[in-house]
Amino acid sequence: MHLRWFFLTVGYSGLSPKAPGTAGTLVSLPLGVAILLYLGPQTLFLAAILISVIAIKQINIHESISLHHDDSRIVIDELAGMWFALSIAPGIGFGFQELLHWENGIALQIFLSFLFFRIYDIKKPSIIGRIDRETKGGLGVMGDDIVAGFAAGISSALIWQVILKSGLIA
């Protein structure tokens, strides 16, 4: 149980008394960026899939014991969503040195991925809200954040493409 709770709360970050979802996302962000920097976006994407599959099963077990759906302290869904966003936004491999150069857009896309993910996760527009309201169990807990992560990654990439096409970055 303790290991499951550590996993579901992303190292107990979900136990934050204020905004556990944001706390979980903030803990997930540097972990995801580290994987992105050193192992690439494909590895981060695959890690997000693996964690999502494991999390769905573990959330189902937790909900069967606690009889409570979508416990706010469970933030593994934020980790998966944030990692999907980060893996989609840049879409290229890069190293630590590239992160320090503004003109390649990596730092901006990381920031935009975080921003869009939090907006989509909190506001739950369109299908994200529908999944949140209508899907039960671990799939419901994870599903809305996975879709929010995809939407955030795509939104970040689109904004970067607009910046490139507009000539704001030479």
Shape descriptor reads globular
Oligomer: single chain
Number of discrete domains: 1
**Which stretches are poorly predicted, pLDDT < 50 over at least 5 residues?**
none
Number of helices: 8
Mean pLDDT over the residues: 90
Strand content: under 5%
At a glance:
This protein is mainly alpha-helical and 170 residues long.
Could you explain the architecture of this structure?
It is a single chain. This protein has 170 residues and is mainly α. It has one domain (2-166). The protein is built from eight helices and no strands. It has helices at residues 2-8, 20-39, 41-66, 76-88, 96-99, 106-123, 126-134, 137-166. It is globular and about 55 Å long. The termini are far apart. 43% of the residues are buried.
